[in-house]
């Protein structure tokens, strides 16, 4: 993906995560417009951080058109409680204190269950709405798995899953459960894929 794709990527993620239980729990107060503004800010800041830190942004294209993406962050950069102060500041300004703390807590909870610090986290995975239910989700997950297999210093990838359909999608691609995980009011599982060179 290129810098020009980031704006479209942010729009895809916003639509995909608008009704996500974690983001609703973390960002919503009682004002829908405020929630949507916070969600846009949180996604934009996280995407920019991933881009600037040269983390994996995997795009799925139909010709020139970006129709889906997956974003992986590795522990080569500080995560959770160790997040950079400028990330915290921008997230605070855009999403607010409670929301920033919830995002940090989510990462910290995931990191605690990962086998070691050579593992990545699948932060986002999304398709544009009219491209869903065509098997493209499988192509995106396979692209993530293939990327992981090619990284000599990434032993695997974890992803927090709270939907049964998402659980089925990832387990079909050799993700296994590392255990139950509650983040805020949301219960789910941490799934993990072991890179081929470490399997």
Task: Offer a few descriptive terms.
GNAT_dom, about 200 residues, 6 strands, alpha+beta, about 45% helix, 6-stranded mixed sheet
Q: Please report the total strand number as a whole number.
A: 6
Shape: globular
Q: Determine the number of helices (DSSP H or I, runs of at least 4 residues).
A: 7
The helix/strand order is HHHEEHHEHEHEE
> Which stretches of 5+ consecutive residues score pLDDT under 50?
none
Largest sheet, if any?
A: 6 strands, mixed
Strand content: 15-25%
Helicity, in percent? 40-55%
- What is the CA-atom radius of gyration, in angstroms? 16 Å
Q: Please report the distance between the alpha carbons of the first and last residues.
A: 29 Å
Average pLDDT taken over every residue: 91
Class from secondary-structure proportions: alpha+beta
Physical arrangement of strands within the biggest beta sheet: 1-2-3-4-6-5
What can you tell me about this protein's structure?
The protein is α+β, with helices and mostly antiparallel strands. The protein is built from seven helices and six strands; from the N terminus they run αααββααβαβαββ. The protein has a six-stranded mixed beta sheet with strand order 1-2-3-4-6-5, with helices on both faces. Strand 5 and strand 6 form a beta hairpin. Helix 3 packs antiparallel against helix 4 and helix 4 packs across helix 5. The longest helix has 21 residues. The mean pLDDT is 91.
């Amino acid at each position: 993906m290129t810098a020009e794709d980031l704006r479209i990527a942010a729009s895809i993620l916003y639509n995909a995560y608008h009704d996500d239980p974690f983001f609703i729990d973390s960002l919503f107060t009682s004002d829908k417009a405020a929630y949507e503004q916070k969600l846009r800010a949180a996604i934009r800041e996280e995407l920019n951080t991933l881009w600037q830190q040269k983390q994996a942004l995997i795009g799925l294209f139909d010709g020139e058109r970006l129709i889906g993406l997956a974003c992986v962050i590795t522990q080569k950069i500080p995560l959770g409680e160790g997040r950079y102060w400028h990330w915290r500041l921008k997230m605070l300004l855009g999403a607010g204190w409670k929301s920033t703390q919830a995002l940090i807590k989510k990462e910290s909870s995931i990191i605690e269950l990962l086998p070691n610090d050579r593992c990545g986290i699948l932060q986002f995975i999304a398709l544009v709405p009219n491209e869903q239910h065509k098997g493209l989700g499988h192509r995106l997950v396979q692209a993530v798995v293939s990327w992981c297999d090619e990284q000599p210093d990434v032993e695997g990838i974890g992803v927090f899953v709270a939907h049964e359909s998402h659980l089925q999608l990832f387990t079909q691609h050799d993700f296994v459960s590392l255990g139950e995980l509650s983040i805020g009011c949301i219960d789910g599982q941490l799934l993990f894929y072991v890179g081929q060179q470490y399997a």
